[in-house]
Amino acid sequence: MIKKIIQLILVATTCVMFEAFIAHTVATTGFEITLTQEKIYERLEGFKLVGHVTETFFADEFECGLRCLTTEGCLSCNIFSDGKCQLSNLTWQSSPNNLKGTVSSTYYGKDIRGWFSSRPAISCKHIVDAEDSKGKGEYWIDPENDGNPLKVLCDISDDGCKCLMIMTMNLR
């Protein structure tokens, strides 16, 4: 039941956030930031991600989002109606049991490609280019973009990235 509710909320509230966000933040705070690409964040009003909070402070919505965007390892943030901001090193997709309903907060999480079969990347290079890499490891890609993602091993290093398909066989 909660999964269906979350899916409906995601459809209704997924947003591209940071083009206007950066312009507003530079204008109001004087901070200057350079992004190589647009970042997509999911917005879930009435939810918060509990656990794995790496930092808590008071700020407005834009300052909280900017801090997450510029903090190494920040993948999501909770913004509360009293101005409290919590940065987290997880997203709700990586920890769905930790997503809790609440009337006083809004959850923002990065739309990370390749970590889950439900959000595959096109290739290992796509993961690197999107800055969604967690280093060498297993990822999900859908090179044909046909809805049939493959689990692969991406060897991501300073020399570039290589891809090795992981095969699963069911023997009877």
TrEMBL record:
The protein, known as: Apple domain-containing protein
Classification lineage: Eukaryota, Metazoa, Cnidaria, Anthozoa, Hexacorallia
